[in-house]
Amino acid sequence: MKIILIITTFLFLGCTDSAHLKHKEENTTSSPEQIQAHAKADFDAILAGKKPIYAIPDKDKSDFADGGTTFYVGEGYALTLMSRLTQEKGVNGYTYGPILTFTSPDKSIKPKEMSSVRFYTLEELKKLRGR
Questions:
Q1: End-to-end C-alpha distance for the chain, whole angstroms
Q2: Which of 43, 73, 113, 126 could cross-link 131 (Cys pair, CB 3.0–4.6 Å)?
Q3: Domain span holding position 124
Q4: How many domains does the chain fold into?
């Protein structure tokens, strides 16, 4: 039996701390359209089991020892690749997917967050990643 838990959320939260949002928005040289296109390409790459194309590992954040959660930073956005060992209804697997956070240089505007995290069995995740 395959168990799939899909969590797709669009959140407009102000609870993300500024350390998580080390985007250097004030140094942004790309247009908002370019930033959104790069963020979408990175988000889609993770959904396809690949590494981000534009974002780079965030040197200011340590990766979690939870099965592979990794933090990236792009121009105007932060990207978290959630990869957490988990068990759903007795089935071992991973909670896997991207969490994308946009911020504005105006600190009074709350960050916008989008995620698409779901449960994969080990076999499903291996197939997604091409292994």
A1: 22
A2: 126
A3: 6-128
A4: 1
Residue 28 has a pLDDT of 61
Q: Whose CA is closest to 93, among 62, 66, 125?
A: 125
pTM of the model: 0.73
- Alpha-carbon distance values, 114 to 9, 17, 88, 102, 131 (Å): 6, 16, 23, 9, 27
- With pLDDT > 70 as the criterion, what percentage of the chain qualifies? 76
Does residue 89 lie in a domain region? yes
Cα dihedral sign, 18-20-23-24: positive
Asked if residue 22 belongs to a domain, the reply is: yes
Spatial separation of the C-alpha atoms in residues 79 and 55, rounded to whole Å: 7
- Does any domain span residue 1? no
